[in-house]
Write a structure and sequence with these properties.
The complex is a heterodimer of chains A (160) and B (239). Chain A has one domain: Thiol:disulfide interchange protein DsbD, N-terminal domain (Immunoglobulin-like, Sandwich). Chain A contains no helices and 14 strands. Chain A is an all-beta fold and 160 residues long. Chain A has a 5-stranded antiparallel β-sheet, with no helix packed on it. A 5-stranded mixed β-sheet of chain A has the order 2-7-12-14-4, with no helix packed on it. In chain A, strands 9-10-6-13 form a 4-stranded antiparallel β-sheet, with no helix packed on it. Chain B is an alpha/beta fold and 239 residues long. Chain B folds into 2 domains: 79 residues; 151 residues, Glutaredoxin (3-Layer(aba) Sandwich), CATH 3.40.30.10. Chain B contains 4 helices and 9 strands, in the order H-E-E-E-E-E-H-E-H-E-E-E-H. In chain B, strand 6, helix 3 and strand 7 form a beta-alpha-beta unit. In chain B, helix 2 packs across helix 4. The termini of chain B are far apart. Classes of the chains: A mainly beta (160), B alpha/beta (239). The interface between A and B is medium-sized, with 24 and 29 residues.
């Protein structure tokens, strides 16, 4: 499992645009990857908890894993804002599976297809918190590639 | 009986009243004229925007997406929005900092290849384009690679880094034709490129005679190149 420090941007969550809201908000039908669940989690206040974030890549597509084999390829990344009282620790991405384009059989890619799970360590003080973030990905099918996109990730955290 | 003075006062009063009426009429006329100009400008602006929106919708509509059986990926159904139309003009910087305009290639057949450094299928196709350019350059073929890599136009340091990476990526692929940075959204008048590679074939008169989306086989690329070379001059490009 690839482990990475989350791109946790400790910005004050206000009316300010979030980093992944710079692009025109893509309608969900245009998303090639979907955030499945959880929408809400309950955690013990002050204790570290691993949260599993489930995503699904549309059939017929693949996205680069968090650790693509080539530098020029765009890795899948999780970007979140830490709300006050909530801390997000290391994020574990699954290892990619091998994928080869028929036209380039010698180039092995590291990709995610179908459903995949990203694990994030969450620690929160007592109360309700809202994690807002996005998964940035770049998808391709067998013949073409799509520009990088961001799928929103929003989770209610109830810490008791 | 009125005195002469009071008669004079009455005449003066009437003249003043007439003057006031005239001034009021003038003010009303000016206000009406200003309002009329504003309404006219508003209508003209509305009509222009409506026409632009209709044109944009028309271009977007041809690049529709329909799900393929057994998959929920957006399989593009591509109808070339520019078929038999003049290729939209552009002027972009190449990796050497030189400004390159499409119109400067009039008289040549031009392949406009939209690609990106992160696009795997583009990297399969590009070596074929390099070879085909070598093969057909003598007949008047040029290829322009338009990079669709993200450019951070607000951050000069990031922009410089991104441009350097594109140039390095192009060099790594052995690209020997001009590679252009799309820093002014040239992709938009070309139908809003959403899949890479997307390639347009432009004949010697500047007319789009073919296009492909996604990786296609080498023979199809070569056939389109021949069509572009033959277009506008039927005596050439028939090899």
């Amino acid at each position: 499992m690839a482990c990475a420090a989350v791109a946790a941007l400790t910005m004050a969550a206000g009316a300010q645009k979030l980093p992944w809201q710079n692009d025109p908000a893509p309608a969900d039908k245009n998303q090639l990857v979907h955030f499945l669940y959880p929408e809400q989690i309950q955690v013990a206040a002050g204790q570290d908890r691993v949260v599993e974030l489930h995503f699904k890549v549309n059939d017929g597509l693949h996205i680069n894993s968090h650790a693509p084999r080539e530098k020029s390829l765009i890795p899948t990344q999780l970007m979140v804002i830490e709300p006050p009282g909530l801390n997000i620790g290391p994020v574990n991405f699954p290892a990619g599976t091998d994928y080869t384009l028929a036209a380039a059989p010698n180039d092995k890619l590291s990709v995610y297809t179908g459903e995949f799970v990203v694990q994030a360590h969450v620690k929160a003080t007592s109360g309700d918190h809202l994690i807002q973030g996005a998964l940035r990905y770049q998808a391709c099918d067998t013949n073409s590639c799509y520009p990088p996109r961001k799928v929103p990730v929003t989770i209610d955290v109830v810490a008791k | 009986m009125l005195s002469e003075d009071s008669g004079s006062t009455r005449i003066k009063g009437k003249a003043k009243a007439d003057k006031d009426v005239k001034r009021n009429l003038l003010v009303v006329a000016v206000v009406v004229a200003v309002l009329a100009v504003m309404v006219w400008a508003g209508l003209a602006n509305y009509r222009r925007r409506a026409a632009e929106q209709a044109k944009a919708k028309q271009i977007q509509a041809v690049l529709s997406q329909s799900p393929t059986k057994g998959t929920d990926s957006p399989e593009p159904v591509f109808t070339n929005p520019l078929a038999n139309k003049q290729a939209p003009e552009f002027k972009l910087s190449d990796t050497n900092g030189k400004k390159v305009s499409l119109s400067s290639y009039k008289g040549k057949a031009v392949v406009i290849d939209f690609w990106a450094t992160w696009c795997g299928p583009c990297k399969v196709e590009i070596p074929w384009l390099v070879k085909l350019r070598g093969q057909y350059a003598g007949q008047g073929l040029e290829i322009l690679g338009v990079s669709e890599d993200d450019l951070d136009l607000d951050d000069p340091a990031a922009l410089l880094k991104e441009k350097r990476e594109i140039a390095e990526g192009a060099a790594k692929l052995g690209i020997d034709y001009p590679v252009l940075y799309d820093d002014s959204n040239v992709a938009k008048p070309y139908g809003g490129i959403d899949n890479l590679p997307t390639t347009f074939y432009v004949d010697r008169t500047g007319k789009v005679v073919g296009s492909t989306v996604g990786l296609v086989d080498r023979d199809e690329i070569e056939a389109n190149i021949k069509k572009a070379l033959a277009g506008g001059d039927t005596t050439k490009g028939q090899s």
